[in-house]
């Protein structure tokens, strides 16, 4: 925490500063944590509630997964999408990477005085379209308005409830697991930055915002020869990008990770923009991609299935988990050298929420 003891922008950016805020301020002061529930301490994409343990029915083992997120992206409209699709997709994806089928969403909106009704209606329609895509209803909500001097754009909070028959956590990575990335990195962050700052990148690059449940659900049932789940861990690389997500998975799992630069799916326009702007593409946010860690024997099968879906056509195996360099992520560069991929620090550029 900073010496002057105030909240700064970097505390919400997804890097080390945000993790410090969560650990030293939020978790430190929340002691009323229900026994038997998995949530705050694990810092997964959602919290789980075991139905059997909470309704005293030993015949059932389903897990309810709950997640919530607030979206304050600026501007609310960006190439090929807007904050409404982002809000629904982000919440659906947080459920999906924990192996949970989305059951229902709630939505709370804070709208500033003067916000155009046509724009507001477009946002609502986008939310509805994203929800319909994965068959999840929006069942409750709340709308507040505030003085135009108190808020410069719309804020949307979405909470999702899902059910998982087998919960997949981001701490389940094991040595030997292969790491699949479901598509190109950096599309959302760079397209948003170019739109917001008025950069002419001579490209039709658009945001990758998408609800991923229909793609992810197709690989969850896959099993190893021994009948065990093929997928050991999943995570969506949003704030902090691929670098932040992989470091978190390595640290939680107690494994090392090695990725190959030559195997990273990245558009030439994103790579060029990052080089021009001095941004590491591994730290750029994504809103329609997932990291899927899978047993080596099932890696090609999972990859083949993912590639059949429109959101996974650029999927690739980018690396593997190791029993060395515990908690660290290394990248084998195109020239054959190795370098550490560090957890992002400070206020990441560009901010995506």
Automatic annotation (TrEMBL):
Sequence ranges assigned to domain PurM-like C-terminal in this UniProt record: 175-329
Signal sequence coordinates: none
CDD domains listed in its UniProt record: HypE
Domain called PurM-like N-terminal: residue spans: 45-164
Source organism, top-level taxon: Archaea
One biological process term in Gene Ontology: protein maturation
Family: Belongs to the HypE family.
Protein name: Hydrogenase expression/formation protein HypE
């Amino acid at each position: 925490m900073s010496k002057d003891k105030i909240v700064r922008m970097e505390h919400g950016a997804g890097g080390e500063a945000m993790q410090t805020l969560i650990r030293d301020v939020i978790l430190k002061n929340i002691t009323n944590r229900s026994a038997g529930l998995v949530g705050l301490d694990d810092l997964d994409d959602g919290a789980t509630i075991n139905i059997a343990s909470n309704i005293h029915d030993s015949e059932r083992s389903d897990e309810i997964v709950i997640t919530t997120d607030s979206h304050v992206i600026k501007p609310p409209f960006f190439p090929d999408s807007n904050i409404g699709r982002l809000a629904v997709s982000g919440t659906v994806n947080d459920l999906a990477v924990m192996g949970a089928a989305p059951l229902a969403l709630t939505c709370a909106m804070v709208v500033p005085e003067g916000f155009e009704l046509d724009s507001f209606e477009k946002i609502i329609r986008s939310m509805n379209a994203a929800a319909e895509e994965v068959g999840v209803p929006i069942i409750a909500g709340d709308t507040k308005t505030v003085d135009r001097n108190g808020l410069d754009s719309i804020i949307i909070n979405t909470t999702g409830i899902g059910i998982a028959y087998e919960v997949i956590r981001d701490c389940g990575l094991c040595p030997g697991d292969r790491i699949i990335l479901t598509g190109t990195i950096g599309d959302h962050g760079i397209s948003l930055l170019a739109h917001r700052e008025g950069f002419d990148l001579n490209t039709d690059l658009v945001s990758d915002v998408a609800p991923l449940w229909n793609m992810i659900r197709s690989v969850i049932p896959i099993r190893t020869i021994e009948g065990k789940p093929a997928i050991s861990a999943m995570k969506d690389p949003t704030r902090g990008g691929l670098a932040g997500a992989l470091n978190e998975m390595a640290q939680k799992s107690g494994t090392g990770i090695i990725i190959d630069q030559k195997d990273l799916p990245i558009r030439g326009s994103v790579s060029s923009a990052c080089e021009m702007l001095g941004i590491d593409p591994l730290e750029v946010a994504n809103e329609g991609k997932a990291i899927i860690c899978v047993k080596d024997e099932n890696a090609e099968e999972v990859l083949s299935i993912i590639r059949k879906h429109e959101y996974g056509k650029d999927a690739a195996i980018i690396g593997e988990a190791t029993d060395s360099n515990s908690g660290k992520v290394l990248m084998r560069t195109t020239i054959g050298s190795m370098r550490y991929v560090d957890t992002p620090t400070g206020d990441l550029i560009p901010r995506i929420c």
